[in-house]
Amino acid sequence: MAKTLKQYIFNNFLISRILDKLLINYRYDLSIFFEKCGLNKNSKVIFDVGAYIGDYTKAFLKLFPKAIIWAFEPCLKTFKILKYNTRKFYNRVKLFNMGLIDENAKKKLYLMNFNAANSFIPLSDDFKKVCGTRETKSQEIIVKRLDDFVQEHNIKHIDIIKIDVEGVEYKLLQGGKDSFKNIIDKIIIEISLIRKGLKSDNINRVFNFLYKNDFYLRNIYQLGRNT
Prior knowledge:
The chain has helices at 30-36, 55-63, 76-85, 125-131, 146-152, 169-174, 177-182, 202-212, and strands spanning 6-11, 23-24, 45-49, 68-72, 93-96, 99-101, 105-112, 135-145, 158-163, 184-190, 215-221. By secondary structure, it is an alpha/beta fold. The protein has a single domain (6-221), classed as 3-Layer(aba) Sandwich (Rossmann fold). Strands 2-11-1-10-9-3-4-5 form an eight-stranded parallel sheet, with helices on both faces. The chain has a three-stranded mixed sheet with strand order 6-8-7. The longest helix is centred in the last third of the chain and has 11 residues, at 202-212. The N and C termini lie far apart (38 Å).
């Protein structure tokens, strides 16, 4: 397969202080956001990794009428809500109660008082101070490498992959090296600048990985004021 320039869209706020001219605040209007990012309306295969309760999944269903959405949510509680919220689209949504990172195993998922912050890594002190989030309990979750999942399900092409995995972005990329290199066209990725601590090099590792695999930055938009 010939290598071509591919796109990723970075979701965060604080980086706008450096790249202010690139920032457009869409205030969660995903239809406008998708249009501005030049996403192909004829997309047929979309992965929603870290689907939570289905906000992006439902937006994908509406705006990409030809697409099948593969939605992954590791937390059982939010997975049940995701399943309920997408029940009318059972013929277009494939749901998986699991995580995608860099290994095939069972991992501890740290559950927070704010469910959207659930993660396979503990909270950093910086994140706790800014967000007031705290760990409440944990549960054991099945995780798999993206490359292995793609091979098992005989997936030949992914038009769009949306990634919201609370601090394990680089692990997900490492578990999907072949997929990102060969079959994925566009990425929507959310990265908190403090999720792993203010001194973490996580964002640099993610950007370097994407650059080496011929992705380029298409857009940045605001998601959270402080994270």
